[in-house]
Automatic annotation (TrEMBL):
Residues 294-358, 457-484 form a coiled coil. This is Nuclear export mediator factor NEMF homolog. The lineage of its organism: Eukaryota, Metazoa, Ecdysozoa, Arthropoda, Hexapoda. Keywords: Coiled coil, Cytoplasm, Nucleus. One of its GO terms (biological process) is ribosome-associated ubiquitin-dependent protein catabolic process.
Length: 993
């Protein structure tokens, strides 16, 4: 199969590409490390030029999958060529080198594409000084292809028409037995296809060899004419654009019904700018231009490879079925032959019964005389030499098995002439060698052979009976194989590789895409290319951990559950997995991550500087899960809307009801700090303001909600705190619980022990880690230590939970906390149930803006302006599609596509393909297929295969889901596992057994 351009192809494509002259470069992309796209535009006309180092150059209409993050060469090309006009496209002599000039004068730049050997692509300035080279190397001792070296232009060769003497010299340099075409191709620049074309037109076959079926002296004129025609074709190709042709090959595909019928289709073989003589008799497709033909050929190359691979697998499956049939046929034939031979041996023994008995008796007498086997053998040979008929019939002694071999003939057979009938020849028993047992008589030996014949006949009958079942089973397996091959082929054709699959990735419980780098280079790429200022950067508090980014495309606050899941991912993809060490992770906004150190030096690859406060997350368990996401058909996406919606926001606005009537605790931490004067502010308002200021992901409008009674209570508390400032300055943070007893709630307070930080002037930040359960985190350069919280709490014996009744149970307090708890109880004794509920709603809101509410008595609580100006919310800047870069549009579209992936497929869903995913286990709680992964000793590949085997044996799995799981390659499942693992799943041991 042809996959790269020859010299004639380059001449034709350069002529066709002259239409690009005058167009400006709009943008440049890369498909892989050696294939690049240049998009041109002129008024409303647009063209895309594809350049593949070493292989091809042509315009394309196919939508190639571009890399979202451009490589260094693409960035260099964009820097120098963007908005430049194409001034010249030419070929260097007749070499396979294309020179594209952009701009004029000193602002000119050249892109040189080499289409020979390993290929190369070079960017130079107007003086041909290399600015960037795709493959730096050295040719010979002097020519260097490196930056700041000058590109050599004097290597190009020119083509000209050869005379008879020059052609004769070329042929005479060839050896006897060499092909004429091969000798000419090595010396001329026309390419093998064009050389073969002109030779065939003059009657010189492709198989013509010098000195055998080709005479140089007689056929030299034909070769000279052929070479001259090739030169004329070259000249015409430089003046006029050529048409395009794709030669094809007829392929036979086995039918899926195993009826022996075959289906035919055509596979593309070669692309050419003209229809050559050697291809005119075969199937081909014609195109208006050569570029269209090349574009069609390469755009269908991958799908054709999948199709041919499927055909090969189908052929192998049918070959196995044919081998099964052939094996059964051979077995039956062998059994028939055994029966026939045993029958003939028995009849020969019967017809030579006297001779056989005498031979047996003679050998038995010799053995009875205790002669050695060698002596017996010598006696038999001497008797046979003397003409003894009995000894002459003994062919061989097999005394080790107590047998002798007799050569028997039919004594009743009459000699027939050449005109005897075929029926007489068939009934005639041939002479043959027959083994006879010395322990049996002639009759008994004959009966033994008849018994063997009957046994073989029975075995044949059983084989015939089982043959039907075996063949049906083999056909059923073959049909299933053919169906699976076709299904997997269709799945692989529909399979779309998402841009984030080259990283570690998963989709959080609240539909946020989370990606992490596999190595330092990918960490650098994620932060520099994919992370925006509104995104969240998560990193484990351990050296060498992966950089995790939460793609926050909405610009709103990232829920705490997603933060925890990203923290788990950061810890698991670090050395903590192999070491089995639990550590912390922290998160910051994307705008806090920088590549510049405080000293001004640039950090190494994969290293970043975090500026500002780090928001530490609680330690996470080393527990991941393996599952599958299924790509839905577009019509089925709507049924899965809201599968991964943000649940935490609902709980902050509406208080959950306790339907079961059981006790429900909601824990909130309140800051209790003293100012420089020793006076204490109200705890509720202070906590509210601290939350708003120090929680960067939420910047709502700051409000203060108070009632008249609340104001009086606060004034009273302020007076009390000013009189006892010395005692209050030592007062710790308080821990407040809301306990639900039936339909009422009660406020319970308790102290929270916190560590002293080195920098007291830094603000604390409230990080929400679960369903309305905040913890207080102070920024520190050191690793934060876990804070111990007293587990003691007040429990009310009253049915309504009223504190005024004084029916609280005794609290299990630690030493030295009685006086503090007494003061807390005294401070909140005047609060009624409505006031407590209002204060708790304020605390639970985490600074969120609350609309005007009415209490049960009908009193309005109005918002009062806070003196401090609120910070602006983080809203992403929405760009016009024309202003957005193509990479940004691609990333946004790919992130939006995660809504089409579901882990909970329905029975009536139309599924296209399956994508394996490794995520924190609690993220996969609702997925249909999942298995828990913890640090262990099992290798990644074996663990992935075991997991898939378990999924395939699930009773609830559908046939379509089975096909999709089978189509996933093993390396795709295992590549995202963090290391050696241990699988945990129900009935896993039973599966292994």
């Amino acid at each position: 199969m042809k996959t790269r351009f020859n010299t004639y192809d380059i001449v034709c494509v350069v002529t066709e590409l002259q239409k690009l002259i005058g167009m400006r470069v709009n943008n440049i992309y890369d498909i892989d490390n050696k294939t690049y796209l240049i998009r041109f535009q002129r008024n409303e006309e647009k063209q895309v030029l594809l350049l593949e180092s070493g292989n091809r150059i042509h315009t394309t209409n196919f939508e190639w999958p571009k890399n979202v993050a451009p490589c260094g060469f693409s960035m260099k090309l964009r820097k120098h060529l963007k908005n430049k006009r194409v001034e010249n496209i030419s070929q260097l002599g007749t070499d396979r080198i294309v020179n594209l000039q952009f701009g004029t004068g000193e602002a000119a730049y050249h892109v040189i594409l080499e289409l020979y050997d390993r290929g190369n692509m070079i960017l130079t300035d107007h003086e041909m000084v290399i600015l960037y080279v795709l493959r730096p190397h050295t040719e010979g001792d002097k020519v260097k292809f490196a930056v700041r070296e000058k590109y050599p232009q004097d290597r190009a060769r020119e083509i000209y028409n050869l005379n008879k003497e020059e052609v004769l010299a070329i042929l005479q340099n060839g050896k006897i037995g060499d092909q004429v075409k091969k000798v000419l191709v090595s010396s001329l620049e026309y390419g093998p296809s064009l050389i073969e074309h002109v030779l065939v037109k003059r009657g010189i076959l492709n198989s013509a060899k010098i000195g055998k079926n080709f005479d140089i002296t007689q056929d030299i004129d034909k070769v000279v004419d052929a070479v001259s025609e090739a030169y004329r074709i070259f000249q015409n190709a430089q003046k006029e654009a050529s048409k395009g042709y794709i030669t094809q090959k007829k392929e036979e595909r086995p039918s899926s019904n195993i009826s022996g019928e075959t289906e035919t289709f055509y596979s593309n073989q070669e692309f050419h700018p003209m229809l050559f003589e050697q291809h005119s008799s075969g199937p081909y497709v014609q195109f208006d231009t050569f570029c269209l033909a090349v574009d069609e050929f390469f755009s269908k190359l991958e799908s054709q490879k999948l199709e041919l691979k499927a055909v090969q697998q189908e052929r192998e499956a049918l070959k196995k079925l044919e081998n099964v049939k052939k094996d059964h046929h051979q077995r039956l034939r062998a059994l028939e032959e055994i029966q026939e031979v045993d029958k003939q041996k028995a009849e020969l023994i019967t017809r030579n019964q006297e001779l056989v008995d005498k031979a047996i008796l003679s050998v038995q007498m010799l053995l009875a005389n205790q002669l050695s086997w060698e002596d017996i053998n010598e006696l038999v040979k001497e008797a046979a030499a003397n003409g003894d008929p009995i000894a002459s019939s003994i062919n061989k002694l097999k005394l080790e098995v107590n047998h002798i071999s007799l050569f028997l003939t039919d004594p009743y057979a009459e000699p027939t002439d050449s005109e005897a009938s075929d029926q007489e020849n068939e009934n005639k028993i041939p002479s043959m060698e027959v083994d006879v047992d010395l322990a049996l008589t002639a009759f008994a030996n004959a009966r033994r052979y008849y018994d063997q014949k009957r046994t073989a006949a029975k075995k044949q009958q059983k084989t015939i009976e089982s043959q039907t079942k075996a063949l049906k089973s083999a056909e059923r397996k073959t049909k299933q194989t053919l169906k699976e091959v076709q299904t997997i082929t269709n799945i692989n054709k529909a399979r779309k590789v998402y841009w984030f699959e080259k990283f570690y990735w998963f989709i959080s419980s609240e539909n946020y895409l989370i990606i992490a780098g596999r190595d330092q280079q990918q960490n650098e790429l994620i932060v520099k290319r994919y992370m925006k200022s509104n995104d969240i950067y998560v990193h484990a508090d351990i050296h060498g951990a992966s950089s995790v980014v939460i793609k926050n495309t909405t610009g709103l606050d990232v829920p705490p559950k997603t933060l925890n899941e990203a923290g788990t991912m950061a810890i698991c993809y670090s050395v903590a997995w192999d070491a089995k060490v639990v550590t912390n992770a922290y998160w910051v906004w994307g705008e806090q991550v920088s590549k510049t150190a405080p000293t001004g030096e640039y950090l190494t690859t994969g290293s970043f500087m975090i500026r500002g406060k780090k928001n530490f997350l609680p330690p996470a368990h080393l527990i991941l899960g393996l599952s599958f996401l299924f790509r839905l058909e577009d019509s089925c996406i709507e049924k899965h809307t809201g599968e991964r919606k943000v649940l935490i926001q609902e709980s902050t606005t509406k208080e959950p009801e306790n339907e079961s009537g059981a006790d429900e605790d909601v824990e909130v931490d309140i800051l209790d700090e003293s100012d420089e004067d020793g006076s204490k502010t109200d705890k509720n308002s202070e906590s509210k303001e601290s939350t708003s200021e120090n929680t960067p992901e939420k910047e709502p409008e700051k409000t203060e909600i108070r009632s008249e009674e609340n104001n009086e209570d606060i004034k009273k508390n302020d007076n009390d705190s000013s009189s006892d400032s010395e005692e209050d300055s030592k007062f710790p943070d308080t821990h407040i619980k809301i306990q639900h007893f039936g339909g009422t709630k009660q406020l319970i307070t308790q102290p929270v022990i916190k560590e002293e930080e080195e920098n007291d002037d830094q603000n604390e930040s409230v990080i929400y880690l679960g369903d309305n359960k905040p913890v207080i985190v102070k920024p520190s350069s050191k690793k934060p230590k876990s804070r111990s919280v007293s587990e003691s709490s007040y429990k009310d014996k009253s049915k309504h939970g009223n504190n005024e009744n004084g029916n609280n149970t005794k609290q299990q307090t630690k030493r030295g906390q009685k006086s503090k708890l007494k003061k807390i109880k005294e401070k909140y004794r005047d609060q009624d149930e409505e006031e407590r509920k209002l204060r708790m709603e304020i605390l639970q809101s985490s600074g969120n803006h609350k609309e005007t509410k009415k209490n049960k008595k009908g009193k309005d609580y109005h918002n009062k302006d806070v003196k401090k100006e609120p910070r602006q919310p983080r809203v992403p800047q929405v760009k016009d599609l024309n202003e957005m870069d193509d990479e940004e549009i691609t990333v946004q579209a790919s992130v939006d596509m995660i809504d089409a992936l579901t882990g909970i497929p329905l029975e009536d869903d139309e599924l296209l393909f399956a994508v394996p995913v490794i995520a924190p286990y609690n993220t996969l709680s609702s997925y249909k297929f999942k298995v828990k992964l913890t640090p262990g000793t099992a290798k990644r590949g074996k663990a992935a295969k075991t997991a898939v085997s378990m999924f395939l044996k699930d009773r609830s799995i559908t046939a379509r889901e089975k096909d999709l799981l089978k189509a996933v390659k093993d390396e795709q499942m295992a590549r995202n596992l963090p290391g050696k693992v241990k699988l945990s799943a129900p009935k896993l041991q039973m599966l292994r057994k």
